[in-house]
Amino acid sequence: GAVVSQHPSRVICKSGTSVKIECRSLDFQATTMFWYRQFPKQSLMLMATSNEGSKATYEQGVEKDKFLINHASLTLSTLTVTSAHPEDSSFYICSAIRAGIDYSNQPQHFGDGTRLSIL
Amino acid sequence: AQTVTQSQPEMSVQEAETVTLSCTYDTSESDYYLFWYKQPPSRQMILVIRQEAYKQQNATENRFSVNFQKAAKSFSLKISDSQLGDAAMYFCAYRFGGGATNKLIFGTGTLLAVQP
Questions:
Q1: Rounded distance, CA A64 to CA B21, Å?
Q2: Chain B partners within 8 Å of A106 (Cβ)
Q3: Labelling B70: which of A8, A21, A56, B10 has CA 20 to 30 A away?
Q4: Taking CB atoms and an 8 Å limit, are A106 and B98 in contact across chains?
């Protein structure tokens, strides 16, 4: 159990386009999801924490208006890269935490990531 | 602020041999969790092993074990009987145990090559 699906796995689009990435928890409810960005051969950098039914919490230096996060249900969070430019090209990964009483003891379950390429 | 340091950008091991990956962290908290994640070329993040700070016993998962030295803030991963499928990027990660944040802080990673 605890499967997280991320879609699309790869997207190539022109500069100026907005791109939406979906993160779904398939067999559990997730009150919290996380969005990470990973550059080649580098570590995962947390971009924001997505909470169901409320505004996302962004990490310092992450543009809220550039990276729109919506967590409208207990199984879906979306990341929209607005007016994407080549510097936004990266690998984006989401993770989800199972909703439950012992929140602090729950592991993060990761999606397979989305490779975004902006031409 | 909490930080996680992996001082070995790359490591290499012969198949069937043992290798140890290093990780140190800095925190003023007493309640936290430590993790090792594996990221193969497919880039999927796979949880290898996890350690609760309050547990003195080192965690073990089959061929994977850790050496958790709380006072030294060290958390190394030992891979025994290395297999070709172990080749991947390995990330050490820290998570504060209290509160509602549950954020993971990752180290910079160690790229492990396994030689046949």
A1: 36
A2: 102
A3: B10
A4: no
Note the pLDDT tens digit of each residue in B54-96. Answer: 998 999 999 999 999 999 999 999 999 999 999 999 999 999 8
A21 beta partners: A79
pLDDT at A2 over 80: no
Q: Please, what is the average pLDDT of chain B?
A: 93
| Amino acid (1-letter code) at residue B111 | L
Closest Cα in chain A, distance from residue B40 (Å): 11
Look up residue B93 and give its two tokens: 């990660």
- Between the alpha carbon of residue B87 and those of residues A74, B90, B104, the distances in Å are 35, 9, 23
Give, for A83, the enclosing helix (H) or strand (E). Answer: none
First to last CA, chain A: 37
Identify the bridge partners of residue B105 per DSSP, sorted by sequence position: B94
| A43, A58, A93: best to mutate for the B interface, most B CBs within 10 A | A43
SS3 string of chain B? CCEEECCCCEEEEECCCCEEECCEEECCCCCEEEEEEEECCCCCCEEEEEEECCCCCCCEECCEEEEEECCCCEEEEEECCCCHHHCEEEEEEEEECCCCCCCEEECCCEEEEEEC
Cα B16 from Cα B101, distance rounded (Å): 40
According to DSSP, residue A28 is labeled S
Predicted confidence (pLDDT) per residue in A15-73, tens digit: 999 999 999 999 999 888 999 999 988 999 999 999 888 889 999 999 999 999 998 89
Residue B27 neighbours by CB under 8 Å, 6+ apart: B2, B73, B94, B96
